[in-house]
Design brief:
By secondary structure, the chain is α/β, with parallel strands linked by helices. It is about 35% helix and about 20% strand. The chain has seven helices and eight strands.
């Protein structure tokens, strides 16, 4: 794992730029999957056991090598633009340049996939939609316990959006068709507070893989789901390659 401090003009601040590689494989040009952190988190907190699970899956030849990239997106903005802070534009506009400077992310230096936990799951689906709208669709997206809230009164409590219209414009539950035929993986515990929105998403999006098993909105459940997420992302890379 490597950690750098970079200045993001989109976010108007310095951010952590955290790369997680599988051990024992060449890094130059390696495909990259974004890993977006949850509410009140940061890039370092999104690491968990990912490097170990990634290394194990690659060393056992279950998946081809790829790296995870985590960046600080802010604590309570759902990865969308706020006054003087635009984490989504950091992902779309600055991350490709940062990857190019390090010769990562394949020939186009673009993340081939996006993943996220909780608020980061919301952000990963938003990012996937924007990438498709820009003509550079992802090869896969995967979300764990995504913060898919089903009512404005509940979302308003989080003070992340100026009004209901702003939320509705980017809410992944309202823009499922904008994802196109993107291969999706979804995990959520049945005791998770976001299970209602996740079940609705699964019903409407018909993801390639969906798991709703016992568990809450906590690290214990994430440790169960994330190794499966690694295998899902790697399997899609093996199947279709980075776009």
């Amino acid at each position: 794992m490597s950690v750098e401090r970079l200045y993001s003009a989109a976010r108007n601040c310095f951010i952590n730029f955290v790369l997680m590689f599988p051990k024992g494989v060449p890094r130059q040009g390696i495909p990259v999957c974004l890993m977006l952190h949850g509410r009140f988190g940061d890039a370092r907190k999104s690491v968990g056991g990912l490097p170990d699970w990634l290394t194990a899956a690659v060393s056992e030849d279950r998946i081809p090598p790829f790296a995870f990239l985590a960046v600080d997106g802010g604590g309570n903005n759902y990865w969308h633009r706020r006054p003087n802070d635009d984490p989504l534009w950091m992902l779309l506009g600055e991350v490709p340049r940062w990857l190019a400077e390090r010769n990562l992310g394949g020939p186009r230096h673009l993340p081939f996939a996006a993943a996220g936990i909780s608020m980061g799951g919301f952000g990963a689906l938003l990012y996937a939609r924007r990438r498709r709208e820009m003509g550079n669709p992802l090869s896969a997206a995967a979300v764990v316990s995504p913060a898919l809230i089903t009512s404005w009164p509940e979302m308003r409590k989080r003070k992340a959006f100026a009004n209901e219209a702003e939320w509705a414009a980017i809410d992944p539950l309202r823009h499922i068709k904008s994802l196109g035929d993107l291969p999706l993986g979804v995990w959520c515990g049945t005791e998770d507070r976001f299970i209602e929105g996740t079940r609705r998403f699964i019903r409407l999006a018909e993801p390639e893989y969906a798991s709703t098993t016992s568990g809450g909105h906590n690290s214990r459940y994430y440790r169960k789901a994330l190794p499966e997420l690694v295998n899902f992302i790697g399997g899609e890379l093996a199947r279709s390659g980075p776009r």
